[in-house]
Inverse folding.
C-alpha cells in the first residue's frame, strides 16, 4: 500500500486499456490484485475476523482470491456473495475459494468488512436492499475497507449513484481513479492507498504531490527569490492577506501597491500609479483579491494586463476579464476561480470537473486552478493535477486570498506556470493541515512558513 501522491489518475476506460496493454491475462491480473488485497488485509485486520463481500464481476473475483490467500495464511475469513460470478476469471477465482459462501442478505457481521461488490465501472444505482445491507454491515464493523471504490460510486466524475457508507480505507487497484479525488464521491473513500498490480500506467492526469523546491543559496538575494507585486482595491484586507502569504511562501520581496500603513513591515508599500508595474524585476503580479468590480478596478486590471508580466488572477478580477482577453497575454496567467467564478467565466456544464478545467485552460491559454474541496489544476497542454482532500476548515473567508499569495510567490520563482500553481496549492493545503480547528485566514498565512520550511 502506497499513498497516491504523484501517481497517475485513470478513468475506467483508461484502466481497461492499461490492463490490455500489459499482455497479462485477466486471471493473472486478478491474482495480482487479490494478492495485494490480502497483503493489506493481513496488516489492517490485526488478527480480527474478516468478512469479504463479493459481487458477480471481477471486483468480486479479486475478493475471492484475497479470501483464499488469507485463509491459507491462517486468518479467520468469511465470504458472502451477492450473486454467482459471471466472468470466466471471477468463476475461476470462486472455484479456488475452499470455504463456504454465505448470502450477503443474511451474513453475520464481522470486525473487518471488505466491500468487493462492484468497484470500478459501476453505471447505475444499487438496489435499495443491497445498499441498506452494506450500510448495516459497515455500521457494525470495527474497520471497513473498499476494494478499488466503495460500491455505489461512479468511477470517472465523482458522482454518487447510491450513497455508500464512509469507509476507513479504499484500496485503489493499479491506479487512482477520478472519484477517489473528486467530490462528492471522495468523501466516502477514507484513506486511499494504491496497490501496484504491474500496469505501468501513465497519463496526463496525476495526483498532486509535494513540490521539489530549492532553498536559497549563498548568492541569493531578494530579487532572485522573486518579487511579487500585488494590486489591491476596494477591500484592502484581502490584498494584505495575500501579501503575507506570498512572503511566508518564500518570496524575497512583496510590493503591495497601496499607501495605507500596515504590518508586517517586511511588506513594501507604494501608492498605486499607472506606471507602478514598470519594473523588470517583478517576477509575478497578483491582481484580484479585494479588487472590487467598479470602474477603478477595471482600470487597474486593464493597466496591469497591458504590461508583459506573469499574472496570477483571482477573485473580482475574474469577473472583469474574458477567456479571449486572457489568451492574448504574453505569459501564461494562472487563474484561481472557485466554482461560482469558474461558471461566470467559462459557463456551466455537466461534464466532470477534470474535463471542464482542462477545456477552460485550453480556451483561455492559461493555468486554471479550479478551487474547492477537490481542487483541479489544468494547463493548456493537457496536464492535470488533482489535489487530495484538504482541511474542511478552509471554508472560511480569506483562505482563497492566502492561496493566491502562495501561488504568486511560486510563480515569481519558478519558470513553469503549471508547476508553480501546483506548488502553491500544495503549500496551502499543508499549511491548513498544520493549523488547529477553527483557524482563520491569518493563521493559515502564518502557517505557510512551516509548510515551506518542511520541504
Amino acid at each position: 500500500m502506497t499513498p497516491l501522491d504523484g501517481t497517475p489518475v485513470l478513468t475506467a476506460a483508461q484502466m481497461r486499456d492499461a490492463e490490455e496493454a500489459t499482455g497479462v491475462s485477466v486471471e493473472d491480473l486478478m491474482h495480482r490484485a487479490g494478492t495485494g488485497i490480502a497483503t493489506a488485509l493481513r496488516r489492517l485486520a490485526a488478527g480480527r475476523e474478516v468478512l469479504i463481500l463479493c459481487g458477480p464481476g471481477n471486483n468480486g473475483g479479486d475478493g475471492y482470491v484475497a479470501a483464499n490467500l488469507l485463509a491459507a495464511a491462517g486468518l479467520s475469513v468469511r465470504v458472502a456473495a451477492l450473486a454467482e460470478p459471471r466472468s470466466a476469471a471471477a468463476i475461476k477465482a470462486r472455484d479456488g475459494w475452499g470455504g463456504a459462501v454465505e448470502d450477503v442478505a443474511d451474513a453475520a457481521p464481522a470486525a473487518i468488512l471488505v466491500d468487493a461488490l462492484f468497484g470500478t465501472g459501476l453505471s447505475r444505482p444499487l438496489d435499495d436492499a443491497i445498499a441498506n445491507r452494506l450500510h448495516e454491515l459497515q455500521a457494525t464493523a470495527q474497520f471497513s475497507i473498499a476494494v478499488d471504490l466503495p460500491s455505489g460510486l461512479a468511477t470517472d466524475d465523482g458522482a454518487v449513484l447510491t450513497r455508500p457508507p464512509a469507509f476507513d480505507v479504499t484500496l485503489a487497484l493499479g491506479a487512482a481513479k477520478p472519484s477517489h479525488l473528486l467530490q462528492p464521491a471522495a468523501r466516502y473513500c477514507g484513506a486511499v492507498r494504491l496497490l501496484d498490480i504491474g500496469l505501468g500506467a501513465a497519463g496526463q492526469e496525476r495526483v498532486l504531490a509535494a513540490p521539489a523546491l530549492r532553498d536559497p543559496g549563498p548568492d541569493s538575494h531578494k530579487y532572485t527569490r522573486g518579487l511579487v507585486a500585488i494590486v489591491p482595491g476596494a477591500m484592502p484586507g484581502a490584498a494584505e492577506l495575500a501579501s503575507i502569504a506570498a512572503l511566508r511562501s518564500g518570496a524575497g520581496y512583496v510590493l503591495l501597491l497601496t499607501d495605507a500603513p500596515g504590518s508586517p513591515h517586511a511588506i513594501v508599500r507604494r501608492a498605486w500609479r499607472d506606471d507602478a508595474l514598470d519594473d523588470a524585476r517583478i517576477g509575478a503580479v497578483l491582481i484580484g483579491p479585494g479588487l472590487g468590480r467598479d470602474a477603478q478596478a477595471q482600470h487597474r486590471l486593464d493597466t496591469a494586463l497591458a504590461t508583459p508580466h506573469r499574472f496570477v488572477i483571482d477573485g473580482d478580477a475574474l469577473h472583469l476579464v474574458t477567456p479571449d482577453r486572457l489568451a492574448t497575454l504574453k505569459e501564461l496567467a494562472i487563474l484561481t476561480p472557485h466554482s461560482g467564478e469558474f461558471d461566470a467565466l467559462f459557463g456551466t456544464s455537466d461534464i466532470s470537473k477534470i474535463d471542464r478545467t482542462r477545456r477552460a485552460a485550453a480556451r483561455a491559454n492559461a493555468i486554471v486552478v479550479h478551487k474547492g474541496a477537490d481542487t483541479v489544476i489544468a494547463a493548456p497542454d493537457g496536464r492535470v493535477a488533482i489535489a487530495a482532500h484538504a482541511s474542511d476548515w478552509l471554508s472560511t473567508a480569506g483562505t482563497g486570498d492566502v492561496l493566491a499569495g502562495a501561488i504568486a510567490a511560486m510563480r515569481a520563482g519558478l519558470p513553469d506556470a503549471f508547476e508553480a500553481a501546483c506548488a502553491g496549492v500544495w503549500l496551502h493545503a499543508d499549511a491548513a493541515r498544520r493549523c488547529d480547528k477553527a483557524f482563520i485566514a491569518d493563521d493559515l498565512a502564518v502557517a505557510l512558513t512551516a509548510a515551506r520550511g518542511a520541504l
Summary: The longest helix spans residues 26-45. The chain has 13 helices and 17 strands. The first strand starts at residue 50 and ends at 54.
